[in-house]
Amino acid sequence: MKSIITSLILAISFSLYSQQIVNISNTTLNSCSASIFDDGGADGNYSETDYTMTVCADTGTQLYFVVNSMSLGATFSGDKDVFIIYEGTGIGGAVLYNAENDTPGAILSTNATCITINIQTNPHSPIDTEVAAGFEVLVSCTLPETCSDGILNNGEVQIDCGGANCSPCYVFTACGPNTIINGDFEASIPAVCGAADGGIYGVANQIPRPWYNQSPVENWIGTAIRIDDAISYPSPDYYYSCTNSASLAEMNGDGSLGYIAYFTGNQSSEYVQQVLSSPLEAGEEYCVSLIAIAKDGLSPGTPSAGFGMWFHNNTYASGDGFIDYDADNGGEAFIGPGTTVNASPQVEQPVGQNISSTTATDLNFSFCASGGESHVIIGNFKPGNSPSGSHEYITIDDLVVKKTCPVDFDLTLDGGDDCAATCFDLTANVANQSGGCQITNDFTYVWLLNGEPIAGQTTPTLTNICPNAGDVYTIEVTYSSGCSSITKTLEFKGPNDINAGENGELTVCGGSAVNLFDELEGTPDTGGTWSGPSDLTNDDLGTFDPAVNTQGTYTYTVSSSPSCPTATAEVVVTITTGVNAGEDGVLEVCSSDASVDLFTLLGGTPGAGGTWAPVLTSGTGVFDPAADPAGTYTYTITGEAPCPDDTSEVEVTLVEPVSAGEDGVLLLCFTGEATNLFDSLGGTPAVGGTW
After folding, report:
1. Is 589 in contact with 657 (CB distance < 8 Å)?
2. Which among 373, 504, 575, 682 counts the fewest CB atoms within 10 Å?
3. What is the distance between the terminal CA atoms of the chain, rounded to a whole angstrom?
4. Residue 135 bridge partners (DSSP)
5. Between 677 and 314, the higher pLDDT residue
6. Strands 272-275 and 347-348, how do they pair?
């Protein structure tokens, strides 16, 4: 019987037994941990030779196995070599794996103690098939540590990735835009759709091609200048739904782009290039993702690792950063190491990790920018002929290059759980790494005692420490991912050597926030926690904001270990209300008018009980125009500490009364001269009046 336990694994390490590494042969192998390659070994192609190999558990138990990689050759008509794994001994048992139908990577099991591996290299045609990279089969007598069981286990950093046994976790928490323009190749030149055969974008039975001097896809060009319709190399191909090339089913959307990685198997490649949306930043890590398939148009291809990306800020013959293989590389299509251009890619598919020719492969990379790179060129940069000896071609889509977010992680410190013990272990725990293109386990540890590094202590655990009174242990942990890193520090004091300080009191009168830690008496340790009527901010500082927080008793707690006693101290917070002397007022009064209470002239809502200065003759706030002088009178209410006093003012102006003089009598003759009656008034009349 055949059962699939999980569906995706990139590499498995069997650790319970010493692993045997062998090439397939017509024999029986007894082993509980083996890595079995084709007859070309781990790095070579297999030969046109048939094999039947039986593998049995040397402990007599059931076997687990994984087809870790699979790449078989094909004839020109599409017939492939045959690879089948049978249950039991010989080829008469149940089929557990068939390369024609099954996908590599699943952990498979059998109740039998043996399996039989059979490869037939020329099953259908008298014409030999092309050879390829072949296969690797891993076998074990125990269920291996899996990287696809959906559970966080076996040292994984995140579920099914990271740690010593699983592939790295790629997390694209980008903090910048995609620097690639039209990375999904959906934006085409409008003239492409409906263009007639023989037009500028292709000839009969050919597909649109990005040339150096004209291109059917926005923002992308090739490295070769188009001369005439009959020439198609070295120029990449543009697959689009409305053209005679059509779109590839394995790619997303309407558009994708393909290029020759090895022309007829030789060191000769096609390239496509563009100006980035913005230059790369020095020292920053960039994440690269895309999908790819080693497929030449609609025809199956040969699995290939011929993918790379070179980011640069060079200037070429054209005066910009675009490469013309004739003008800039002496007419040689390959521009990789050793050529005039001498391109050195920052991103490259590893040798031996071939891109599938039948299904789209997700590719993820990361690199650190030197700074200023403004152009990117994509193609094959590996010197030499193709490893397969065959023509190799790659189609790509959904290309993204983004700057990553800053790295971070959580750090905790455990130790001294036995409060009665004089010696114990101290352990730094790290978790929840984030940022970077790749979640790693790249941590470095430095232990210090009272500020001085402890020689030779570079692991997470400091064993058998025996603190003296006053000793402080410090751990400095640095986490790195790519070119990004961050260092965090924690301190530890012995279980019986902790200090939360002494109780304190605080009275606040609104206004600015206050750190309660500063209100503790004594010498409290940092790193504690606060609790009370409302939540405080800023961790151990315990910031109290009168506008947000509630008055009451707040407790500061310091602990050295979860199971040991804690030290506590309290700060009692009282919020007092400030006094209000109201708003300033004015008074204009005649010296002959009645008395006025200045308090009634204050604006706002002044509080009672204040004092006036200078002192009025009434001894209160009542102003007597006949007795008190004009001027500024200040009303003051005394605040309760720490609230300040509050004052307001009344500006008083005295206006003297006017006089029309005293009544008068004037006798005139009818024949006399005109006379001013004003002169007949008694007293001292004021001028300006009316009659």
Report:
1. no
2. 682
3. 132
4. 70
5. 314
6. unpaired
